[in-house]
Amino acid sequence: MVATTTPLIHRTEHVGSFLRPKEIHQARKAFFANELDAAALRKVEDAAVKEVVAEQEAAGLRGISDGEFRREYFHLDFLKHVGGVTVTKNKLVGEKAEAAPPQLTVTGKLVHENPIQVDDYLFVKSCLSCPDSVVKVAIPSPTMVHFRGGRAAIDISSYPNLDDFFEDLAQVYRDEIAALAKAGCTYIQLDDTNLAYLASEEMRQGAIERGEDVETLPKRYVELINAALRDKPANMTAAIHLCRGNFRSRHFASGGYEPVAKVLLSELEVDMYLLEYDDERSGGFEPLRFLPKGKKVVTLGLVSTKTGKLENKADVIARIREAAKYAPLEQLSVGPQCGFASTVHGNELTKEEQWAKIKFCQEIVEEVWGKK
Q1: Selection from 132, 121, 118, 126 nearest residue 57 by Cα
Q2: What's this model's pTM, rounded to 2 decimal places?
Q3: SS3 call for 67
């Protein structure tokens, strides 16, 4: 991969999704009831995106997303546009405790048929008002097409050889990244649950039962992501967020990063890692010892998006100091542990509590690293 010349590193970073306003919920309900057409829905979304862009800039954020306001799920609304992918077993309905992540099936050869995020990127760019703001485009990691279903979810006639599957999948991402780069995008983030899941004993056991080698799978996923990013331009920053699940304040996995830390931090060719560290589910900071000294940055997700209660500032700063025992402080930053609404449902906190969390992160940055 071409090295990033000047990575876009912001001390206060966020994952990308924000709580949807009531106008979005009302419009989507009308759309699915055939009471509103796609153009009218997008008009409502445009207004909401414009507002959340202004809110992000007013809060001091400079990596600006669309709040994922056009998405129902952080990954499906992207991956359903990939030729050869079919969404199956969508169970994120009904009671929260009964919900399970949707699954994807590969039913044909994978192809990038049209740009997926370019129009959304251009709209956010048109809404920016601060000269140092940059649009962050968050897209699901390519591993999302493989992990949940494994070999059984990939059409054998299309891909008798999984090496060809991984290569075609990487090419889909190279094509999308090229389209974004041509449109002017300089900041992308891959949202990945599966490298974090491979640090969970329960998830590792499930993968073993699907026939996966959990000792080699993390490296294969890192190779897949590196292949996807291989042709990105030198002026494009690449980040990755590792997530243990985020549905209505519920998580799906627990476990420290140690089982994947070396390959994740030493071999994955990204500029920034956004890692969940909000509670004991995430383990200790010892895995950060594998972070190479240099330009790479780890955003410590020490502030939970799953509850509206603010953390104790002294405790958060103490944890940053603890992390700095294993990685240089200048290569660390802080932010929320995950998005505030990885699905349209949103987490169980208020909009006011959401922005209080962002402000809280800004205050911590100023105390630890000083004002910019």
Answers
A1: 132
A2: 0.92
A3: strand
